[in-house]
Amino acid sequence: KITLFWFRRDLRLEDNMGLYYAFENEENVLPLFIFDREILDKLEDKTDARVQFIHEQIRHLHQSLQKYDSSILVRHGKPPEVFKSLLSEYEVKNVYTNRDYEPYARARDQEVEGLLKEKKIDFFDFKDQVIYEKDEITTEKGDFYKVFTPYSKVWLKKFKASKIETVRLDGRKTGFLQTKPLPLPTLKDIGFQESDIEIPPMDINKPLIRKYDKTRNFPYLEGTSRLGIHLRFGTISIRKLALEAAQLNDTYLNELIWREFYMMILYHNPPVVDKAFKTQYDRIPWQNNEKEFDRWCEGKTGFPLVDAGMRELNQTGYMHNRVRMVTASFLTKHLLIDWRWGEAYFAKKLLDYELSSNNGGWQWAAGTGTDAQPYFRIFNPESQLEKFDKEKKYVKRWVPEFGTEDYPKPMVDHKTARERALKVYKEAVGN
Ligand code: FAD
Fold it and tell me: Annotated site (Electron transfer via tryptophanyl radical), which positions (predicted)?
């Protein structure tokens, strides 16, 4: 009999909790990865760099497991169907995995667990992608937090008071099923092609993180870690990173807490996926002008910081956090376009796309989210430019025609747009 360890967003061998426990508790562990058609078939861009990234990581795992005289079983399909067919091919004792908190993932796991149960096969899941999950950080009454600052205080206090453990497989061969390398589908086999977008390396750049609080707000600097995609797919361990961060820079650690805060919010409020966290904000009559939306997507609004950000996103799959805030605020407040449109566009383009953080970031910018930030604080894209890219280094990098006649005039007047937003928001939700 074998134990399956099902990889999802934890694509590494070391400090992988579910894998470690499978390895410790069981024999004949066979790692499994499913290229999930439920997700992949919905991606319009068949050169999506994220799929290529995942494929590459699976290839690395395939290679690394050869050192253990083992391999990884790779399938392409919908997980419940894949499991049904696996159960007819293998004698499965149990299935180990790491927990995933997104609504789709929870429903998927419940379905798989149900069909395993019918065959008396156990499904064990572990906390791996966060330091604190679900109900671990609550108010004294046991409620989940709705505001970041008190959540982060409790998080930090708990983190400082506990010993965070990391785990290692130690190169022992006995845990894994001994097998010849199993076949690995190519990218083409799963319906995708190579992309020319570059993925930032998995590197904890200590000197950079040490001065993160001073550099992180300036988009022309390489002042942030670019680890988003690695946190998303688990090619880095959050425990390892948080332990480093605690030594290096408190501001950086605080950003990792934001990540967990939004994951917790999504876990307790799955409707935020397509509804305002503060539900009265769903009354806002968005203008949703498609031509204006297209200009925003293309980076042709005539507001240099907005345009630079959108072009950086389109060309590289990345946008600096400061500029994410400015572009999102511009779309929702200056153009009165539904935050869900912007969120969906970012979801298509961002290499580090994470449902919880993207949703949280968009709802924050639109003023519909958890934070106490009132809607009447509207970013002025021009003063943001003066503050964070005074010499226009970032703008010139992404908008080569900036300053020439070819560069478009501002598509709206800041003052007029601001007043319109205030009026529309106020009429919809009051003060
Ligand atoms: P660093 O600044 O080096 O931070 C390290 C890590 O901390 C990040 O990789 C990320 O995991 C986490 N982090 C940092 N800032 C935040 C934050 N504000 N909220 C949650 N986690 C944070 N982040 C995503 O990971 N995925 C998204 O899809 C995403 N969409 C966003 C959309 C909008 C409108 C806004 C305003 C922010 C969004 N963010 C998102 C948060 C933030 O912009 C990115 O995490 C960050 O820019 C990624 O770059 P980095 O890896 O260099 O981050």
Answer: 286, 339, 362
Q: What is the pTM of this model?
A: 0.98
Cα torsion through 272, 274, 277, 279, rounded to 10: -140
- Cβ–ligand 1 distance for 339 under 6 Å, the answer no
Which residue's CA lies nearest to atom 8 of ligand 1? Answer: 228
Fold of the 2-128 domain: Rossmann fold (3.40.50)
Instruction: Please give the CATH number for the structural domain made up of 130-165+205-268.
Output: 1.25.40.80
Q: Is the CB of 223 under 6 A from ligand 1?
A: no
**Domain boundaries 273-426, corresponding CATH code:** 1.10.579.10
Please state, in angstroms and rounded to a whole number, the distance separating the CA atoms of residues 16 and 149. Answer: 29
- Residues of each domain in the chain carrying CATH 1.25.40.80: 130-165+205-268
Torsion on CA atoms 416, 417, 423, 425, rounded to nearest 10: -170
The question of whether 255 is a catalytic residue gets the answer yes
pLDDT digits (tens, 9 = 90+) for 192-236: 999 999 999 999 999 999 999 999 999 999 999 999 999 999 999
Q: In testing the pocket of ligand 1, which one of 321, 322, 326 has its CB within 8 Å of the most ligand atoms?
A: 321
In the annotation, is 286 catalytic? yes
The answer, yes or no, to whether ipTM is higher than 0.95 is yes
